[in-house]
Write a structure and sequence with these properties.
The structure is a single chain. By secondary structure, the chain is an alpha+beta fold. Among the domains are: 116 residues, Mannose-Binding Protein A, Chain A (Roll); 132 residues, Mannose-Binding Protein A, subunit A (Mannose-Binding Protein A, Chain A), CATH 3.10.100. The chain is built from 7 helices and 15 strands. The strands form 4 sheets. The protein has a 4-stranded antiparallel beta sheet, with helices on both faces. A hairpin with a 2-residue loop joins strand 8 and strand 9. The longest helix is centred in the last third of the chain and has 33 residues. The protein is flat, with a radius of gyration of 45 Å. The protein starts with 15 loop residues before the first strand and ends in a 6-residue tail after the last helix. 24% of the residues are buried.
């Protein structure tokens, strides 16, 4: 009994300040959603680790307690990929070998200082964080959506889970295939191997590779070398931004480009299997046509207006006919059938066939009388 009994671990009371952040360990076992609610009740959030100092401090707390600690990662809450719940992107990752799992979404810090995934209804202590720093503004999103496949809607991180960024959707496919096969696979999904247009897009892709870099060191991208030795993007994007690694591209038969998961730089290769990244435009949602339903009272009003318009048109036509009658001074012709020869009529009682009424001018000679006079004279022959 002379063996000294180790003193129980005493956790610091309240918040412990570390640079611009403060941390607090909650020793009660609870599920991930319960841990999140407890941190919010403490005016904080489940902890994020943005640098080596904060990561080392949290590792020390888990080591003292000899128990895992829930942290602020849950891909079910961040559109199917891992992003800190306080809005910060992953700037470092401590995944254990074989992690993250496809079937488990909530993340805890193990006593070895690595990150592991678990079912969210498991119970562990947790660590909360308060911070005076604000996360970066999310990149602007363009109109449209990324249509998910049926297996993605269930919450599983399937190989074809599409993530939005600006006007495009991206999928990180972890099947090891050749560059040509990767390109064909993207095309079948209406996409192309990814092109990278600027540092913002590179940062987006790199941040999503953080949790995969321990298992997959590189990914095929859409760079290829033409027979003229020119490097181009497969989707016809102009190559006006480059991020080659030192010494790249190699002046050899290495005709395809890939990205290093660790730092986002580009290198060249020829054969071998790698995972790959697909990119396709967002889909604009269809806007249903607007249907205007008229109430009964509105229908009656519109019907009444139609009757008024018809009556006004008839009155106007009658007034026009009356004015023409007064101006011409004779009855207007009737529009009877021009082919009706009944009652001995031999002329067309139709305005299209009526002869105009003309007055004979005083000085005009009646040629019919001249003809009769000529017929009455004898013919003189020589």
């Amino acid at each position: 009994s002379g063996i000294p009994v180790p003193a129980p671990t005493v956790l610091p009371r309240g918040w412990v300040k570390l640079a611009n952040d403060s941390y607090k360990v909650l020793p009660q076992n609870c599920t991930w959603p319960e841990a999140r609610m407890q941190c919010e009740a403490e005016e904080g959030q489940l902890a994020s680790t943005l640098d080596e100092l904060s990561a080392a401090y949290l590792e020390l707390q888990a080591l003292k307690l000899q128990t895992p600690l829930w942290i602020g990662l849950n891909r079910n809450e961040t559109q199917g990929y891992f992003r800190w719940m306080d809005g910060w992107p992953l700037s470092l990752a401590r995944w254990a070998p074989g992690e993250p799992s496809r079937d488990r979404s909530c993340v805890y810090l193990d006593v070895e200082g690595t990150w592991k995934t678990a079912l969210c209804n498991h119970t562990y202590p947790s660590v909360c964080k308060q911070s005076t720093a604000f996360p970066p503004t999310a990149p602007p999103q363009y109109p449209g959506v990324c249509v998910q496949e049926e297996e993605d809607i269930s919450g599983r991180n399937s190989p074809w889970s599409w993530l939005p960024f600006r006007g495009h959707c991206y999928s990180f496919v972890i099947n090891n295939v050749r560059w040509a096969d990767a390109s064909t696979s993207c095309i079948r999904k209406g996409a192309s191997l990814v092109s990278i247009e600027d540092p913002a897009e590179l940062h987006f892709i790199k941040s999503n590779l953080e949790f995969l870099k321990d298992s997959y060191s590189s990914f095929w991208i859409g760079l290829f070398k033409t027979h003229l030795g020119q490097w181009k993007w497969l989707d016809q994007t102009v190559l006006d931004y480059i991020n080659w690694a030192e010494g790249q591209p190699q002046d050899s038969s290495y005709d395809y480009g890939y990205m290093q998961s660790s730092d986002g730089t580009w290198s060249t290769a020829r054969w071998g299997g790698k995972p790959y990244i697909c990119k396709k435009p967002k889909v604009l949602p269809e806007t249903p046509p607007t249907q205007v339903s008229l109430k009964g009272g509105q229908r009656r009003v519109y019907s009444g207006l139609a009757v008024v318009v018809v009556l006004a048109t008839i009155c106007l036509m009658g007034l026009t006919a009356l004015m023409l009658y007064k101006k011409i001074g004779r009855p207007l012709p009737s529009f009877t059938n021009p082919l009706d020869f009944s009652a001995g009529r031999s002329t067309f009682d139709n305005p299209l066939y009526m002869e105009p009424v003309t007055e004979v001018e005083p000085n005009m000679v009646d040629t019919s009388q001249l003809v009769n006079h000529m017929e009455a004279q004898p013919m003189i022959t020589l």
